[in-house]
Write a structure and sequence with these properties.
Order of helices and strands: EEEHEEEHEEEHHHHHHHHHHHHEEEHH
Number of strands: 12
Strand content: 15-25%
Helix content: 40-55%
Radius of gyration: 22 Å
Largest sheet: 5 strands, mixed
Mean pLDDT: 93
Low-confidence stretches: none
Length: about 500
């Protein structure tokens, strides 16, 4: 038997076909793969099976578009296991989550702390107000705490800085203030509509990305062949969502450096983009637009004409605003060489999406694990090498222009008039893994069905789960006054993390 099963994106396989390895072999195989930059972990989680805990690891291979899945079985009260993190640091969050959820411990994990303080955590005696923050002793050092109530109207998160004067030596980020138990809700809720609403609520600024991931995983668990029209609609919606959110971030970044013209113009440009979703499906954040094996809101000729007009007006002003921002000396002085994440750091901690691509790591599901629509678009990831705020600014600008080109291409295509047959019920004893490139980066949904086809486990990995550590590294040796622009340049999700 092979030491892993090889599948493609959005492919379902019999859960019994996943190889079960001795822990030492499981550790060696998966720990050594990320040494080759083509491989990275997209999901690693515990699956209770009777009296044992099955650890399932999904490793993406970014050249051939394969996903390698392997597993091992351990006692649920296992203590002092050797860790994958000791072999490659990109596993550190996954193993912290497994330890918190199930109570197992690792002997050599360097940072084994709770992740979310979930309601169903194994050790209820671990309390958030007792979180073991890292400390550095020194008479000239001081600590600065920010949060958990945010100065803006966003979700809660706590940031503790250790500073020497104005220079940040260390930042520790504590989240988990609004854990919603959303993965368990996918299992508990039995109606498809309830699960669709859950998927749209994972992270409100990524309604299309997470909604598409759920639609694809449900279809694969039902052995439903997703038709071209549904994939086309998802792709159009994903690229519109990317334009809207990148533009909103550019607006916020201008605000952080007191460039009020850029803040106002980018903010104004976002509005007609999300208003198009309102015209398409009745909701500015595109709720109800994406559904498994269904199309409630067809893309009509009149919508195509309206979107073409919106994009033409948007592109003219966006391009002009970009030329102003990216050539303004005062903006360059704040963006360049601020908040740097090196390529070595990005690979070591397993970054994905924008955080990876701005440090020279071309990690993008649209090219590495594409569906048939992105294959026709021949998507090529945009990358920068400097890993600073400037790179994250320019990436947003260039990806918006790239998305505009994709939408113009898609709007010229003639969609086939296909009859859409609805998916039936999920097939028993299946495992499916779906990867979708949202505007922040890679989203992974994993689903497992039981003996009667019922959903028995649902696992979600938002790109922010991979990337919060990148922000902590980015601010080191920067002035604490630069933290707001560093933070906004990543714009990571609190709710996407606090599942």
């Amino acid at each position: 038997m092979e030491s892993f099963i090889r599948i493609k994106n959005a492919q379902a396989v019999d859960i019994k076909s996943v190889p079960v390895l001795p822990y030492a072999d499981f550790l060696k195989q998966n720990g050594e793969l990320p040494a080759d930059e083509r491989y990275h972990c997209v999901s690693y989680f515990g699956h209770p099976t009777g009296k044992q805990l099955q650890l399932i690891c999904c490793m993406a291979e970014d050249t051939n578009g394969d996903i390698f899945i392997s597993s091992c079985k351990i006692d649920p009260d296992a203590k002092d296991l050797p860790s994958l993190t000791a072999i490659h640091e990109s596993f550190h969050m996954f193993e912290r989550e497994i330890a918190e959820n199930f109570g197992i411990t690792y002997a050599d994990h360097p940072w084994l702390k709770p992740v979310r303080y979930a309601h169903n955590r194994a050790n209820k005696e671990e309390l958030m107000n007792q979180y073991p923050f890292y400390q550095i002793k020194g008479e000239e050092l001081h600590e600065v705490g920010v949060g958990p109530i945010h100065a803006g109207i966003i979700e809660p998160g706590y940031f503790r800085f250790i500073c020497n004067g104005e220079k940040i030596l260390h930042l520790e980020i504590q989240l988990g203030y609004q854990h919603r138990g959303i993965e368990q809700l996918f299992v508990n809720q039995k109606h498809l509509n309830q699960r669709i609403q859950l998927s749209e609520s994972i992270a409100g600024d990524s309604t299309i990305a997470h909604g598409s991931a759920f639609a694809l995983i449900w279809e694969s668990l039902c052995h439903y062949q997703t038709i071209h029209e549904l994939l086309w609609v998802q792709t159009v919606a994903l690229e519109i969502e990317r334009i809207a959110m990148h533009t909103a971030d550019l607006s916020a970044m201008c605000g952080d450096i007191a460039y009020q013209l850029g803040n106002s113009v980018y903010g104004r440009l976002r509005t007609p983009i999300i208003n198009f979703f309102q015209a398409w499906c009745g909701n500015r954040f595109a709720r109800t637009l994406i559904r498994p094996s269904s199309l409630w809101h067809p893309f009509t000729d009149s919508l195509a004409a309206q979107l073409s007009h919106v994009l033409a007006d948007f592109e003219r002003d966006f391009t002009q605003m970009g030329k102003s921002l990216l050539n303004m000396p005062s903006a360059l002085s704040r963006f360049e060489k601020t908040g740097v994440v090196s390529r070595e750091q990005a690979v070591k901690i397993g970054t994905v999406g924008m955080a990876a691509r701005t440090s020279g790591v071309a990690r993008d599901i649209r090219s590495s694990h594409p569906d048939e629509i992105y294959q026709t678009l021949d998507h090529q990831p945009i990358t920068y090498q400097s890993g600073d705020v400037m790179a994250r600014t320019k990436l947003r600008h260039e990806e918006v222009l790239q998305s505009l080109r994709y939408l113009h291409t898609l709007l010229r295509q003639k969609l086939p008039n296909e009859e859409i047959e609805h998916a039936t019920l999920p097939v028993p004893n299946m495992l499916s893994v779906v990867l979708v490139e949202g505007w922040r980066g890679e989203i992974c949904h994993c689903g497992i069905t039981g003996k009667n086809g019922e959903l028995i486990q649902y696992k979600i990995t938002d790109p922010s789960f991979h990337n919060w550590m990148a922000l902590a590294l980015a601010v080191r040796d920067n002035a604490i006054s630069d933290f707001p622009i560093c933070n906004k340049s990543f714009n990571l999700s609190y709710c996407g993390f606090d599942l």
